[in-house]
Design goal:
The chain has 127 residues and is an all-beta fold. It has no helices and eleven strands. Strands 2, 4, 5, 6, 9, 10 and 11 form a seven-stranded mixed β-sheet that branches. The protein has a four-stranded antiparallel β-sheet with strand order 1-3-8-7, with no helix packed on it. Strand 4 and strand 5 form a beta hairpin.
Length: 127
């Protein structure tokens, strides 16, 4: 059984940075499409980033995070990261790591098919 575990969430001030990690047990991530969603209180779950399997390497970013967030992977650690910079209060949410079935290139057009979800990690941006 696949288990995804997110970590790195914290309370930070506006303008600061955080790096979220997504590690997996029961699955090797290098050949999988891995993405990040977030959900703020009272809002729908938002797809924010995706990284294709290592042989492809293409990425997707939502407009709301483009230029501030970077997704990457470390296959030796079976981990995918989301580096978040210049954080804003609107970035406050629970962040979820997923294993996606749909190609990352499709994320801009439609809600992707998701195989597995992590439990989430809280990011709070507040002064």
């Amino acid at each position: 059984q696949v288990q995804l575990v997110e970590s790195g969430g914290d309370l930070v001030s506006p303008g600061e940075s955080l790096r979220l990690s997504c590690t997996a047990s029961g699955e090797t991530l290098d050949s999988r499409r891995i993405g990040w969603f977030r959900q703020a209180p009272g809002k729908e779950r938002e797809r924010i980033s995706c990284i294709s399997e290592t042989s492809d390497g293409s990425t997707y970013y939502a407009e709301s995070v483009k230029g501030r967030f970077t997704i990457s992977r470390d296959n030796a650690k079976n981990t995918v990261y989301l580096q978040m910079t210049n954080l804003k209060p609107d970035d406050t949410a629970v962040y979820y790591c997923v294993i996606g079935i749909s190609s990352c290139s499709s994320w801009s057009r439609r809600f992707p098919v998701i195989q597995d979800w992590g439990q989430g990690t809280q990011v709070t941006v507040s002064s």
